[in-house]
Amino acid sequence: MSDSQELNRRSWDERASLHAASADYEVDRFIADPQHLSEVVRFDLPRLGDISGLRAVHLQCHIGTDTLSLARLGARMSGLDFSSQSLAQARVLAQRCDTSIDYVESDVYAADQVLTPGSFDLVYTGIGALIWLPSIDRWARTVAALLKPGGRLFLREGHPMLLAVNEDHQDRLLIEYPYFEREAPTVWDSDQTYVETDTALSHTVTHEWNHGLGEVVSALLRHGLQISALVEHDSIPWEALPGQMSKNAQGEWSLDKDRWRLPLSYTLQAIKQAM
């Protein structure tokens, strides 16, 4: 694991209990209501289709609310994350919901070393995951290695155009951060996480990388996947641009003014081709 990834892992270890305790992740509702699904998974239900009986893995699963949601839709789920504390919270949630999910601790690039290669019908990557990875090509290689021939990747992610916008400007959209993947990370230093909490983080420095939409598509094509669907959305599950957005009834955030100006997220699906 690189120095950057170790730095990020420490941050995610510290965030795990804060996220599980926050109202944003709805842990109590998952436990109380066996039919409850995460807002992220609910958003993509029309595109996800019937996944009952599929062998599936959720990469970068964090505390497992999306993983649990996919299991409730009938998939036989594994979850993988590099944060031991996130996985501890995920296991507790699955146990309290009486749901069998196999959680594995690993760097995502080594997923095919700790999980059986070529054994999955579905690889799922949820929103907010890819920015923590320095190389989109290595991620695509991992996805291809895990999928069976004919298996499907399902990805929902923040749009790289949004991630290039500086959120500190609350009256305009200014592109001030990288759109394309760069070797050097964008370095952030903040004692706050993205849920409401009174606890300040002690591991404040994190490293992120943006990946252009063409870079994501090209990497998947290089590793033998065929793009089967790509939809850009004018909404995203968090308030990505404070002061310029409002939350809708589906729990997504959109621009208040001229929503057509900027894509905020996208859903991509790809199929592994037979050799």
Automatic annotation (TrEMBL):
A single GO BP: methylation
Methyltransferase keyword on record: yes
MF terms (GO), sorted A to Z: methyltransferase activity
Keywords assigned: Methyltransferase, Transferase
InterPro entries cross-referenced by the UniProt entry: Methyltransf_12, SAM-dependent_MTases_sf
Pfam families: Methyltransf_12
Tree of life domain: Bacteria
Domain (Methyltransferase type): residue spans on this chain: 58-153
Protein name (database record): Methyltransferase domain-containing protein
